[in-house]
Protein 1
Amino acid sequence: MGEFKTALRRAWYRFSRNAGSVVGLAIVGVIVLAALFAPLITPFPGHAGGALDILNANHPPDGRNLLGTDLVGRDLFTRIIYGYRLSLFMAVVVLALTVPVGVAVGLAAGYAGGMTEAVLMRITDVFLAVPPLVLAMAIMGLLPPSLIYGMMAVSLMWWPWYARLAFSIARSLRQEGYVTAAEVIGASTWHVLLREILPNAMPSILTKMTLDVGFVILIASSLSFLGLGVQPPTPDLGSMVAEGAGYLPDLWWLAVCPGVAILLVILGTNLLGDGIRDLLEAER
Amino acid sequence: MSVWRFLARRLVASLFVLAGVSVLIFCLARVIPGDPARIALGPNAEREQVEAMRHELWLDRPLAEQYVRFVGGALRGDLGISLYNHRPVMETIRRTLPVTVELILAAAVLTALIGVPMGIVAARWRDGAIDNITRLISLLGAAAPSFVWAILLMLGFAYTLQIFPIAGRLSEAMHAPPSVTGLLLVDCVIAGQWAVLGDGLRHICLPALALSLSGIAQIARMTRANMVEVYDSAHIELARAFAFSEASMALKYALRPALIPTLTLFGLQIAALLGNAFLVEAVFGYPGIAQFGVQAILQKDLNGIVGCVLVIAAAFLAANVAVDLAVAFVDPRIRLGARRG
Amino acid sequence: MSDAMLSVEDVHLRVRRFEGVHHILKGVSFAVQAGERLAIVGESGCGKSLTARVLLGLLDRKRIDISGVARFNGTDLLGLAPAAWRGVRGRRIAMIFQDPSTALNPVFTIGDQLRTVIRRGQGVTRAEADGQALAMLEAVAIPDPARVLAAYPFQLSGGLAQRVLIAMALVNRPELIVADEPGTALDVTVQEQTLRLMHRLTAERGAAVILITHNLGVVRRFAARICVMYGGSIVEQGGVDDIFARPAHPYTQALLRAVPRLTGAGLPEGIDGSVPDYLSPPSGCRFRPRCPRAIDACAVDQPLLEVGPGHQVACGRAA
């Protein structure tokens, strides 16, 4: 226990030496907490849905509505917090779906080599040959617009990146002494993959996952900006920007506030991801 | 000689991948629930109309036959009729693709011309003020999707400061010169229409900048990291020990090895540019392939979607072959076959 | 000592890390006469490579604190302004790097790199530099030098590339050559050839050599004088024959016992303990924790004391 505490303290010392990492952690922490407790902390939780308050429509930011109100009088601050809730939910679901699949494919290809590698990695190449956003848009275009299909589309374009990452690690580790040693003493393929190779691939995978939370949010908001994915009145940051874009420059807050909200969450996860990467690299 | 073999190998590999993409997108378009003909015609169409359309689109044939017919058509440059604007998909693509290509080229040039020098300067004066400013720009650039930057730039430079036009590719008073290359700016130069060229340049600035910001951020970061790593390498220590000048180290002996991973990243950036072009074109009302693509997607236009994806994948693969060639040019180990390409 | 070509006096080197200050070089002093061959010997991590880098000003003075004097023909290298280094590096003091596979720039030809060395050192025209490069490669016994000039480093064998590094160091006829474990990355026979070549060429040109190595066999054949370094200090120095015949410092003795021999009985012996900790080093002699003969007097700093003609040792037992 004491040892663990020391390790934790040293990790925090290294992490906190970079001010950016701490800022990132703070941003992500605040956003995650706000999203989790959205019904408790937002001033107008009812505005998350299709409520109307026409009398208060198009208010610029002021004391009552921190970030102003939209075309039908809903509080923008409330809707942005609920938008975070949705974005983070999507990011978590997409990563939970894609990371295991991608890592499994990559490890299998990298460790088995030969025909398995050739087939799996060529399939991966095909997915990677279409610019990710375009592939997701095309898949979205073929599916009805909804949250579930949106997450499916993003997931379909996401797994190959993890397959690539896990593949390159597994391939380089295949030759390592301890892996060969495990094989020589007769460890099963599963043992070698899960106990010898996977733990060594984890730091890179974890780092990529942290950075990808922001990136999933970026892609998902890009899709909903184009009208693909979540449909109104569900508050979604991308569609809020799209809606507000038509009212520039007079109702500037409609587009700028959710836009900056997207910027903030991605900035936070990028800073945090960099910090975690530096930490994991220093530990090795 | 080996450069040509290298190129040939990459081209063949790309064609295989493109074939794979065609299978992928074709299958996706067919196995997904919902009847495209029904969606295209709307809920009120008669059953006979829908059947007729299914027949016309060969949707009533086996999947394999549909694919063979599709590939046969595609090889002849026929991607079918758009269910959205009822014109050949190829014709629309031929008209709109150059617009997007021009925008992406402009963004790629900005990415390289701003990102690489930023990285060099940041690495040379590591941990100094310039490095910190570069780091901040990189962080912000990569932190927002291009449509957010598009809107912020539009609000700041077009609406508020009124330095640049708000939207479009040319002012209404301007007339595009006859199309030679399809790239407006190049056509202007060919035709010697400098006023139109100036107007076109003013229109492309904000979209290209919005499109390139995240690329600039990532290229600058990557270049800086590589330069820092190379500066710590034994061969730069040797260069110092033999009194090579700072300038020749920064711009030659450290830069060239550092550029190799940056170029590879640049290849990936092209994918982002192609995808983000859709968003930026939507914000700035830029008449590229995105307008058609987004409409095709929203209207469930099967042929349009498949055509757009294929063309974009082909463009991406071509760009990557070009990047591979550039890497081979910079790195003799690849050019002369010490490593597999 | 003031007549020496190079005299290093009481050089200390400290690096600040987040755990604290590492005091890596502790009062290093030695001298090199013109044309002399001095070997600096010690295990890895003893500070010998850092000493070489101090002499060429290759360390980042912003992160690394260096004090002391390193007088080279009257000028103090440690006080040299960046611009003034140009007249020294590669021109009056040149370095032979250890590993040719990393020391040559992978994406430029040998010709480009060698030519730049010549032009920076002598300010000659491109054509003149080309001629010198070709002649120099011939001098280091490279067959088909024209082909090597056009080649990239990865196209050369390790032995050839190491010769290129020697050519770079010699081509501007420097007075002092610092050779940092040349050829240790190569196999033994190639290393031997390389060292012989370096020996012959520096002798012909009358250049002084500081040979940095951990290999005592190499020292015996290619140096006249030895400095034995341990834990960032020179613990013993003297003529090669004196040191091999009458090693005075326990560390030198242990080092000699660790050398494998073809004749004689017994296996080489290891040295107990581990390399010193620079963050909180022991007071006085840094070999003290590993020394079988340590006494209380060793806990204070030991000066180098004469134990024979030109043979000095820093040891509490010698006082």
Protein 2
Amino acid sequence: MLNIRRISSSRWWHKKKSWILLGIFLFLVFVRISKGSLYKDFFYFISRPFWPGQFQKEVIIKSINQESLIKSNLLNKDNIRLREILSLQQSSNNNNISAAVISRKTGGWWRQIILNKGSKDGVEIGSTVTGPGGLLGRVNNTSLFTSSVTLLTSPESKLGVWVDRSQINGLLVGSGDDHPILIMYSKEADIKVGDFVSSSPASSLLPPNIPIGIVQSIDETSQAKKTAKISLLAKPQVIDWVQILKINI
Amino acid sequence: MNEFFIKKLSTISFIFIPIIFLWHPSWLGFLGVQPYWPLFWLLPWAMINGSINGLVFGLFLGLILDSITLDNNFSQIPGLILCGFFFGRIKPHSDILVGHFRYGLICSFGSFLCGTLYLAQILSRNFSDGNFLIFIPGVKNILAEVFLTGLFAPFICSQFMRMLKFARRKLW
């Protein structure tokens, strides 16, 4: 009787250690089947404090910006040289005026910004105003110390623009919200979501090739024309400093 | 100095309307839209001084605001003149609480009227281009403006009413 009990307690399923090992084995099988997702997710959480911080991100962004600036300057020089050869319109980079935004109406009906530079500083009506990202609008009015800029989003704004990919002209009309409307007066106009829109080389109001925005959506319901909503690159609601370009057209 | 300030209280507050209009505090906005500031001053002024005064000062406010906004083709004058005239025909309510809510309701109506007239001008101007894409953002602007104007009117109009009444009493 005693011997039988001894034999049965020596079976592997009577040992706690065996069950532990079986549990580990099953867990590893699960890990294998799930292709290590549990491990990866676990690693995600424990490595989080050691991810590249804000500082490192800023350093990288700064380097990328410097690289872009150098490339942009080289392209700009090339552009000016080629435009001189072809006797095309060009903007003067030497006479730009930096100005701060002192009043901003970017919502509702009245979409304008007021700058702290006026006719005293040489700002003229019709000058082009750009900010980080691209075109903001045109100077509509100047006083001695200030100048008022009609934004591209204002219902008063109508400008000739250029779709870079298909190289066609269109009319950019402010709609009273943050996304102006691009009107192409042809049903067959080749325009796609994501197309880049810049100032038209044929425009008599603006210097050529100033970035404006990206096509966000297209409306093809009209019989005679195509319209598209444009997402602007320069955000007037957050920009504090702008450049006023003196144009030689 | 104090007497001069009280005497000129209505003028000083009138001068501040375009400044607030230009200041455009974004933290007070809703969907990027601001309350229609001139109505906060025009309502108490017209209620105290009558329809003709309201109409005249509606015109003055419209002229100033048109000069500081850049839209050469559209004007705020028609809306403000109408509001000034209608506001002048309304008498202050004896119950303070009801009076407060009335300010909100009346200003909302005024804001709706001004916004609609402004949108009508934009649409008629763009009619030749067949451009009705402005309609939806326009309606959004009107609704946001009506909401905000109605929300702030009970607080601001009642303060203006007290100030203007006080100045008037001191003058007499």
